Amino acid sequence: MSNSKTILITGAGSGLGEGTAIGLAQLNYKVIAGVQILPQVTALRKKVAELGLENNIEVIKLNILDKYDVKVALKYDIDILFNNAGIGESGPVFEMPLDIVRDNFETNVFAPLELTQQFVARWITAKKQGKVIFTSSVVGLFTQVGLGAYASSKHALEAIAESLAEELKPYNIKIQTINPGAYFTGFNETMAETAFRWLDDKKNITKRADLKAGFDAFFSSSYSKLDPAEMIDAMIKIIPSDTGKFRNAVPQLVEDMLKGVQLKSWENTI
């Protein structure tokens, strides 16, 4: 795909999404950067202007759960859809309120699938080549204690992406996933705080101090602080490319870890 292609990115208001939008624009791709809330629109437009990228990035409000935002996004003629927007919820699944689990699936699975369906239908009707990339996660391929609800939504996304990849081959529409590890963008740190808004030591079996100790141990490890620049560099190569792997875990140590965990899972006992 040439640099003339237009790429729509959801969840471009911070972290890997923002970095990828800027990186692709610097490579002279046309980027529609969708952000969740209006303050992010203002902040990103300011950053785009400071970088002199106004001709390559258009910043729009795109809350993927807002039907009016989605209607605006669907007016764009794009070549690549990067479904990057997502939320994360932490806490023990056996006690987590079900409305929170449903919200996780609504944002991470149903909304990106609906947006994908609409763009794919347009491409097929127009007999146009297209590409869809989903931001999954390393926990789309294994489950970390305390992140079961988030991981299950990413597992579901993996299954949908695999199915789409086969279904859409006859129409020359490509599908990929990107599976970031624990990059130090603030997303994982914020997700770890979500359980503490509903966990109640007077009602719940899981105690707040125990859950916090588990998260603190993880965030004190070097694995939890991977440099996001490494992931962004990989993403700006993966997203516009005509070729590549279906699943993309970065760096290599993360891919190796995932393969080891998946192999070991066959030896798990109850």
UniProtKB/TrEMBL annotation:
Taxonomic superkingdom: Bacteria
Pfam families named among the record's database cross-references: adh_short
InterPro entries: NAD(P)-bd_dom_sf, Sc_DH/Rdtase_CS, SDR_fam
Transmembrane segments: none
Coiled coil: none
Presence of the UniProt keyword Amino-acid biosynthesis in the record: no
Keyword terms, alphabetized: Oxidoreductase
Molecular functions per Gene Ontology: oxidoreductase activity
PROSITE patterns per record: ADH_SHORT
Family: Belongs to the short-chain dehydrogenases/reductases (SDR) family.
Full protein name: Short-chain dehydrogenase
UniProt organism field: Pedobacter chinensis
